[in-house]
Amino acid sequence: MSEVSCPRCGKSVAELQNLDPGIIAKLGEEGKGESLPSQVCASCYAQLAGSVARGSVLMMREKAKEQKRLMLWKSRVNLIKKARQCMNDKMFSDAAVAYEKYLRVLEVVFDAKPGDLSPEHFKDSARTQELTIVASVYWDLLRIYDTSERYGERQGQSAQKLANFLKFTPILPDIVRKAEVFLKTAKNPAMIKQFLKLANDDKGRCFIATAAFESNLAPEVRFLCQFRDQFLRKHLAGNIFIFLYYKFSPPIARILDKSPRLKPAVRGILRRIISFLAARQ
Ligand SMILES: [Zn+2]
After folding, report:
1. Are the CB atoms for 119 and 167 separated by under 8 Å?
2. CA 16/CA 21 separation, integer angstroms
3. Which residues have C-beta under 5 Å from ligand 1, the single-atom ion?
């Protein structure tokens, strides 16, 4: 019996099998097309066919996962609506359940461990507006969990997260004012005080300035934050500016983080703005 050698692996075999053009095309798509011969030995055939099957299973799994994430992301709107309706109807424990579900949904969407949701998760997406919603959720939870000592731990977590998220939203001063009022009737005033301390410790982060100067303690960053709190927040145009700034600056900060070479130029622009502002004060 005459033997032929497989053009792919060089093994001597009795006969070669035709490689299905579908397999060649699939492997080509995945960049594994090599330069495949039209005929290979049985073991090469099995190997190539198996690799195609594994590839498409993985791709389907990835697609299904992505689809599930998208569905979950959409479902969050209804959870928020439901929670807010419950808040209006004073059904606070139902509201808490819906809010917690909403937070779980975000954790799954952003691949975060339970309780690990952070503003950073929203930085790398077009979803920064969600930060304000997340902050308002923690604000409601902080007050709901104030109703019983049983919820002490959860209230503590909500206080921490609220302070954390608020810094990235334009509702910071509003919530701080509301919390100061709430403090007077709170069952657990220590927790509200702790929140106020956290929130006032480090008021808002200037995304662009922090990315450009690589620290939110740089004097230039502090100046800009101060200017925002003392001047901009008091004027309507200023508030519109802050809103736009928080909407557009995370993507700009992201670009800066990816292209550090741009940083000196941005630092230069910010310094010029600062000296202009400082001269007018
Ligand atoms: Zn072979």
Report:
1. yes
2. 15
3. 6, 8-9, 40-41, 44
Residues 231, 234: Cα–Cα separation, whole Å: 6
Average pLDDT, the chain: 83
User: Which of 163, 145, 146, 165 is closest to 100 using CA atoms?
Assistant: 145
Alpha helices by DSSP H, listed for the chain, are 21-29, 42-88, 92-109, 120-123, 130-144, 152-166, 172-183, 189-201, 207-213, 219-230, 236-258, 263-280
Residue 44 CA to ligand 1 centre (angstroms):
4
| Contact between 23 and 52 (Cβ < 8 Å) | yes
Backbone angles phi, psi at 126, to 5 degrees: -90, 30
Residue type, 49: A
Residues 6+ apart with CB under 8 A from 26: 52, 55, 56
Write out pLDDT tens, residues 11-34: 999 999 998 887 887 777 666 656
75's tokens = 């479902």
CA of 57 to the centre of ligand 1 (A): 24
Q: Which residues contact 115 (CB under 8 A, 6 or more apart)?
A: 157
The Cα 84–Cα 97 span in angstroms is 11
Domain edges within the chain: 205-281
Residues contacting 107, CB < 8 A, separation 6+: 113, 114, 116, 117
